[in-house]
Amino acid sequence: MAQDIAKIETVMCAAPVIPVLVVEDPQKAVPMATALVKGGLPAIEITLRTERALEAIEAVSKHVEGAIVGAGTVLNAKQYDAAVAAGSRFIVSPGATKNLLDAAEGHSVPLLPGAATASEVMFLLEHGYERLKFFPAEQAGGASYLKSLSSPLAAAKFCPTGGVSLDKAPAYLALPNVLCVGGSWIADAKAVASGDWAGIEERARAASGLNS
Q1: Active-site residue identified among 28, 58, 130, 133
Q2: Are 212 and 40 in contact (CB under 8 A)?
Q3: pTM of the predicted model as reported, rounded to 2 decimal places
Q4: Distance (Å, whole) CA 120 – CA 98
C-alpha cells in the first residue's frame, strides 16, 4: 500500500513549521500544545525519546482543540502501534526499514519516513512514499544539497529536520521540493521545563509567518 499523500500533506501543509518536541512531563504537554496552536502551528511532533512521551501525546490528543499531534522517532512496529493507540494522527521516523513500512500498511495513520541520500529517497519512492523527512538536514548537506535532489527526484517533497533554525528555515522553504520544516527551537526543552508558554506562543507566531 502506498503512502496516503493527502493525509500526510494535511499535516505538512498545516503551517510552514512542525515543532519537534521532547516532553519529559505530560502535565506540561497540554499548555505547551495550546501555546503552539494559538501561535499558528497546529501540527505537533512529540518524539518518543522520553519515558512518558506516549502520555503526552494522549493528553494533547484529548485536550487540545485544533492540535494535530503526531509521534516522532518511531523506529519499529511496536512503537507505531503504541503511538497510534495514544492518539497520534501522523507518525515520523528518522529513517525507513521494510519492517516499518509494513507496520504503516496496517494503519490508516500516515507515516512520514526519513531519508538523507538519493538512494534512500529512491527506495521510498519505489515503495510509494513521495512525502519524506530529510534528516538530519543540516548535517546531511543543508538546503543546497536538498535543492540538488529536486530535479532528478522531482516526485519527492520534504520536511527538512535537524539543525533547522528560524534563520535557516527560509532557505529550505524557498525550495521547490520542500513543503515545511521541522524544528525544535520553538519549544525547546528549557522553555517547556520552565513553562514559558508565552515565549513558545511568540516563537510559534513568528514561525507560522515564514511563508508570508
Answers
A1: 133
A2: no
A3: 0.97
A4: 12
Helix axes 197-208, 29-38, angle to 10 degrees: 40
Instruction: Kindly state the percentage of the chain with pLDDT values over 70.
Output: 99
24 catalytic per annotation: no
Per-residue model confidence (pLDDT) at position 212: 59
Walk me through the domains of the chain, giving residue ranges and CATH numbers. Answer: 5-203 (3.20.20.70)
Catalytic residue list contains 45: yes
Residue 158 C-alpha from the chain's centroid: 10
Pairwise CA distance, residues 68 & 50, whole Å: 20
Catalytically annotated residue among 45, 58, 130, 201: 45
Please give the grid coordinates belonging to residue 16. 510552514
Mean pLDDT of the 140-167 span: 98
Preceding amide of 26 cis, omega within 30: no
Closest CA to 18 of 123, 92, 108: 92
144 alpha carbon, distance to own chain's centre:
21
Predicted local distance difference test score (pLDDT) of residue 189: 87
pLDDT band at 211 (very low <50, low <70, confident <90, very high): confident
Q: Can you tell me which residue has the cell 512521551?
A: 53
How many residues in total does the chain contain?
212
